Amino acid sequence: MKVEYGNVAEDAVWAGVDTHAATNWLSVVDARGSELFSGEFATDPEGYRKLCDEIRRLGSPVAAGVECTGAYGAGLVRAMAAYGIACCEVITPGRPRRGPGCDKDDAADALRAAKQALSGENLAVPKSQDGWVEEVRNMTVAREELVKQCTSLANLALATVRKGPDEIRARLERLGTAKMMGVLAGWDEAEADPICDAVMFSLAALGRVWAEARRSARLLEERIERTLKAGNPALASMYGCGPISAAMLAIAAGDNPERMGSEASFAALCGVSPIRASSGKVERHRLNRGGNRNANKALHIIAMHRMRTDPRTTEYVERRRAEGLSDREIRRCVKRYIAREAYRLIMHPYDVPIEGKGPEMRAERIASGVSQKDAAIALGVTASTLCDLELGHHQFRELALRYRQWIDDGFPLEAGIDS
Fold first, then answer.
1. Which has more confidence, 90 or 355?
2. Lowest-confidence range among 58-62, 171-175, 203-207, 393-397?
3. This prediction's pTM
4. Is residue 69 in a domain?
5. β-sheet with 60-66: strand ranges across
6. Domain co-membership, 335 together with 251
7. Higher model confidence: residue 397 or residue 181?
8. In a domain, 75, yes or no
9. 98, 23: one domain
10. What's the CATH number where 372 sits?
């Protein structure tokens, strides 16, 4: 991103910070790029204060380029915002980007960040990390680790059972992984054979840790869902999008999604922007293998669900397949459309789609004295399906639209509605 500063004061200065776990190295340059200061500060509130004061002592700060704003530099970015210093994120160059003979130390990296902030080239607006998305991010990271731990424990327990005594293998392997781990979590009996007893004691220990990790992961997922519904009910109600997929998309956008200039920027951020792969007479695009891979995974999950269950999406798939597109190219197109929809919902968090308004339609039906059974018959569905829609347990796009139209038409019971 190119930043235009416009008119600046005569004593304007630009700062660059190379961030680390224990210290931050600051470099300050003037409008000509001459270094005015270079020094080290601690990564604590007092160190942040001294760093900001040093920048202001040297002149009127225009912008500060900070490395790793989502990790080591997160606290400094918040402190700079409180002190009124504009902050931007600079990309840390890897070895291929460094020219031969270039220095690599904290002072050189800070000076490079300051000069990059002065040029205004290749800068990004850092995530603010001060809202509900940051809450979701922390819970999502913890849940991912717990899920990985559950998988690792289950694999270890299954390998132990398969290598253990035959009587233990015959007793446990046929149960299946989840049921086996549940049985092991409550195991407290002693075995007659010493080897069998040692194996079962070890498996029971794995089972108890597995059960606790699974319970904690479920509690985190429930809280993630509650936080999502409070912070962005529109995204939480998107068709085919579960709480974890919605969390991944929200985390990619951050607490300040306005930093993205357009929905095309969000698509590129999620790795679903089309990449030209034409050659000769062949005109085509391929998948983008860059971007936020967690957000890309979330879009893939939503796309696969819609391609199986959503009539509009399945119709689109058949039409594009008839045009000669491969299944991989069709998935790329579907993911791109979903990214456009997700961006709009992220930017308008309370614009809840129709399929997320089941409870409201239920209240209107009850107020009109129409029973759920009669409504289900009129709509051509089962009462349990309509109940799931009204309670928000499932989101049926076409049924929700027909339900809304039926309510607007005055609840006609005698004619019915075609399904």
1. 90
2. 393-397
3. 0.78
4. yes
5. 35-42, 23-29, 12-19, 60-66, 87-90, 123-124
6. yes
7. 181
8. yes
9. yes
10. 1.10.260.40
Domain termination residue (choose one: 231, 260, 284): 231
The residue-averaged pLDDT of 65-93 equals: 89
Residues 276 and 312 in one domain: yes
Average model confidence (pLDDT) for the chain? Answer: 88
Domain residue limits at 404: 354-408
Indicate if 369 and 323 belong to the same structural domain: no
**How many folded domains does the chain comprise?**
4
- Has residue 238 been placed in a domain? no
